[in-house]
Amino acid sequence: MVTDTAAGSALFTVSVTVRGYETDTQGHLNQAVYLQYAEHARWSALRAAGVPQSTLVERGMGPVTVETTIRYLRELRAGDEVEVSCAFVWGEGKSFRIEQRIVKTDGTPAAEVHAVCGLLDLTTRRMLTDPRGRFTALATDPALLGIETV
Q: For residue 32, which phi and psi values (nearest 5 degrees)?
């Protein structure tokens, strides 16, 4: 699902239902699973924009995360349904940010995930310049990645 944010960029969301095996002994979602939900939303956004993982590998590049911060706001339990959003924030240089929220379907915020990412050259193992331009060239719908084209 795609909606417009107040800033005018695309906000991509996916729905996820918390599964019982993802919970810990306290009965709430294991902290590592929040990262899996965030990663699922990122790859879903890329795929919806026309940039599947296979295309990136064929071009010798892959997205990498160099920093992630999670802010836990409310616990999630088995059976809870959530929307995981994904908004790409582009700047200059080799990195970009992905801002994400995990929100229960009743509107209760459960977590915020902030990531600094880049594109890695799979041969040289170095970050590539101009990730925005590279995604723009590959995407069939770059607007889903918060990229406006002229």
A: -70, -25
